[in-house]
Amino acid sequence: MNTIAEHIADFLKKYPPFDNLSFQELSEIATSIRVINLEKHKLLFHINDILHDSFYVVASGVINLTVIADAEETLINKCVEGDVFGLRPFFAKNNYMMTAKAREESIIYAIPIATFRTFVTHNSNVLEYLLESFASNSSNPNEIENLHGKLVSDNIYYSDQKSEMQYFQSLSYNTTPLKITTSSIVQEVAQLMTNTITNSAIVCQNDLPIGIVTHTDMSTKIATGRYSISTTIDKIMTSPVVTIMENVSLAEAQLLMLKYNVTHLCVTNDGTDKSTVKGIISEHDLIVAQASNPGVLIKEIKRSKSAEDLKSIRKRLTELIQKSLHKNIPLSHINNIASEINLAIIKRSVELAILDLGSPPVRFVWLSIGSQGRKEQLLSTDQDSILIFEDVTPDKYRDVKDYFIKLAKRTTVSLENVGYELCPNGHIASNMLWCKSLTDWTKQYSNWINTPGENSNEISSIFFDLEIAFGEHKLEEAIQNVIFNNVKNNVLFFDFLGNDALRKNSPLTFFKNFNVEELGVNKDKFDIKTRALMPLIDAARLFSLSYSVKGVNNTYLRFKQLSIVDPRNSEIYLNCAEAFLTLSKFRTLEGLKNDSSGQFINLHELSKADKEHLKNAFAPMRELEELIKTKFKLTQFS
Amino acid sequence: MLDWLKNINKEYPEFWKTYLSKFEKKSNRYVVFTTETSGLSLEKDVILSIASFAVIDDRIVIADSFEIVIAQYKFFHDNGISNEFTIETKMKKLSEYEGIQAFVEYIGNSVLVGHHIDFDVEMINVALEKLECGRLKNEALDIDIMYRKLKDINNKQFSLDELCTIYKIPQSDRISSSDDAYKIALLFLKLKSRLGLN
């Protein structure tokens, strides 16, 4: 055994399923490995490629696994260091169902199936793990359970495996339908259907589909007594059967079912009933395929019972965002969907807390502030919120406030469990300061607005981005009115806010290079949040307050709205709106790549074109700055 | 010129004849190798170890590797250097004769790849001369030259460490000729695909 094999064995030992194996076994595996280097965007295998004789482990870099749906690539999974993929040859014999492509330059270990198989048979943990990861790279949880049950209990995982997952543009369907002949007896068919737990059977003649029998036929024609259970199947079957080609999209399948008013579609080789049957698509398959649809997510949120449930939904939201970005859906749309789901999660958390604590003594409103308030929260960043309750008599005030603080604590803690970190500055409703009555809040806002910088050095401007998450709309309206009435012609306040917006350091240095971090863990990375996004967000807020643009909190929409209100500068605003989207996208992609908030961009990983793209997005900021200075008559010294 | 005449009737060792006969066919196998030597002089210094991996179909084949230490007891003794390293190593130990023979058998007609490979090949050739064999006939590729060709740089040489930094290959804490050979192999794969070689 050579030194490098030893290194590889050391590397593998850190990751499942290899951690279940002894070093001796690992050395043997490591010796048989072949090392592959994949340049960015190079393919390792493609859908319909013949299976390789090995599976793969990512040694460094990132590999995207995708399927093709309606001529569009859909991301199923991305594999990072230590991840195992390309397991298909273990479990199935037909060609690859997905494409593996390097997202960045990657080094891959190819482990020959033949070598590994011996270790799998002797180690059920390894087998289990492989099954799970094989399954997680598909999107169909049902099939997996089937596989699991069959494979583990029988322990013959490589013998003719008929049940397999079919990617079918994110639509997986039964590829082993029940086939019967025209002369079958109804009772026998019913028994077969019961045994195999299917609700349909295809009637074939010479292997060609000529009809179908479903539960509906059984109940309408047999159970009603119109035919006896000893008749032959051709009397009750529905014929002809609706057939389709293999490469039909989810939407198309749905349309066909509606058009023909059927619940099952028969998949055949060439899409006509003159070729062999390949499988059957049922309504249920369509529902399963839509599991990560935003509407379904919101429904599930409404039904969830605990923070744990919400957490898994939030995870699926991240996947949804990732997939949407890959499909190049406009970021503003993704933003809308994501924020609706985020809001639903917050709402549900408040509801769950109320269910625990009993109903509130007076009406109240839970407001999201900051990025949640602006509906710009794509990645799970921190939570910021405030709580306003109705005015009560002084003697009750204590009890009422106690209740709401308890409520807020519960809510924020469960949101923390879901994955939204608490705001590091304590801007959350469970904080005594930010959970108070309407009168107190009115005072608070007038203080901030009329004497800025007096009581506290920085008013957090995020308090001016409000979005109702739960509760009484009237309270929210009241506080919005307080804000807009107070800021009207308030020179001092705008002066303060304007300077605050200008204070942020510019994104580029004098020499048009990126202004990167000089110290700390993020050295040489670019802080896209404070240097590029914040100035835009601040400016958008500043202008919309000064032009009394109400009801729009989103930075992108604020700029759009401003271009209408202030048509003379509309070009600047529109450019800023676009720039904001571009920058947000950079941040989101970075965040998804590293599972972080995406605040710091690693410039080395950007391509030259991307860097230029990023730099161009800064261009409108200069004009915006000038606009702030002239509009609010700010000088350098104010 | 006369050397060639002299050689024509010379009787080579058996392994060398086999080696020469392999060149009738062209090989699709690359052998990435590096030698560790006692110094940089072709005359005075000797090879201490050889490490090598085969690359077939753009894949480093870990099993197809070659890793030996050459026991240079006489050299160490003559120069008064401690030979602890040779004694302690767990790698396969061979005498120079056996080692070079095994290496020649291992490489066959493959294309050789290395970093500043001229020197490595020369060192092997010097050793081969002692065994009364000819010079290596294999084609040789140098990753430094490959890199310079890719970037069109003529006035500078790049060390193995520099190339590793450029292509973000992590430095391992263990320094051995095997590690170097592995790094060279990775660099070779990267450069090969960038240069579009088949």
From TrEMBL, chain A:
<dbReference type="Pfam" id="PF00571">
    <property type="entry name" value="CBS"/>
</dbReference>
<dbReference type="Pfam" id="PF10335">
    <property type="entry name" value="DUF294_C"/>
</dbReference>
<dbReference type="InterPro" id="IPR014710">
    <property type="entry name" value="RmlC-like_jellyroll"/>
</dbReference>
<dbReference type="InterPro" id="IPR046342">
    <property type="entry name" value="CBS_dom_sf"/>
</dbReference>
<dbReference type="Pfam" id="PF00027">
    <property type="entry name" value="cNMP_binding"/>
</dbReference>
<protein>
    <submittedName>
        <fullName>CBS domain-containing protein</fullName>
    </submittedName>
</protein>
<keyword id="KW-0129">CBS domain</keyword>
<dbReference type="InterPro" id="IPR000644">
    <property type="entry name" value="CBS_dom"/>
</dbReference>
<dbReference type="InterPro" id="IPR018821">
    <property type="entry name" value="DUF294_put_nucleoTrafse_sb-bd"/>
</dbReference>
<feature type="domain" description="CBS">
    <location>
        <begin position="237"/>
        <end position="300"/>
    </location>
</feature>
<dbReference type="Pfam" id="PF03445">
    <property type="entry name" value="DUF294"/>
</dbReference>
<dbReference type="InterPro" id="IPR018490">
    <property type="entry name" value="cNMP-bd_dom_sf"/>
</dbReference>
<dbReference type="GO" id="GO:0008773">
    <property type="term" value="F:[protein-PII] uridylyltransferase activity"/>
</dbReference>
<dbReference type="InterPro" id="IPR005105">
    <property type="entry name" value="GlnD_Uridyltrans_N"/>
</dbReference>
<dbReference type="InterPro" id="IPR051257">
    <property type="entry name" value="Diverse_CBS-Domain"/>
</dbReference>
<dbReference type="InterPro" id="IPR000595">
    <property type="entry name" value="cNMP-bd_dom"/>
</dbReference>
<feature type="domain" description="Cyclic nucleotide-binding">
    <location>
        <begin position="17"/>
        <end position="137"/>
    </location>
</feature>
UniProtKB/TrEMBL annotation, chain B:
<feature type="domain" description="Exonuclease">
    <location>
        <begin position="29"/>
        <end position="197"/>
    </location>
</feature>
<keyword id="KW-0378">Hydrolase</keyword>
<keyword id="KW-0540">Nuclease</keyword>
<keyword id="KW-0269">Exonuclease</keyword>
<dbReference type="InterPro" id="IPR013520">
    <property type="entry name" value="Ribonucl_H"/>
</dbReference>
<dbReference type="InterPro" id="IPR036397">
    <property type="entry name" value="RNaseH_sf"/>
</dbReference>
<dbReference type="GO" id="GO:0004527">
    <property type="term" value="F:exonuclease activity"/>
</dbReference>
<dbReference type="GO" id="GO:0003676">
    <property type="term" value="F:nucleic acid binding"/>
</dbReference>
<dbReference type="Pfam" id="PF00929">
    <property type="entry name" value="RNase_T"/>
</dbReference>
<dbReference type="InterPro" id="IPR012337">
    <property type="entry name" value="RNaseH-like_sf"/>
</dbReference>
<dbReference type="GO" id="GO:0006259">
    <property type="term" value="P:DNA metabolic process"/>
</dbReference>
<protein>
    <submittedName>
        <fullName>3'-5' exonuclease</fullName>
    </submittedName>
</protein>
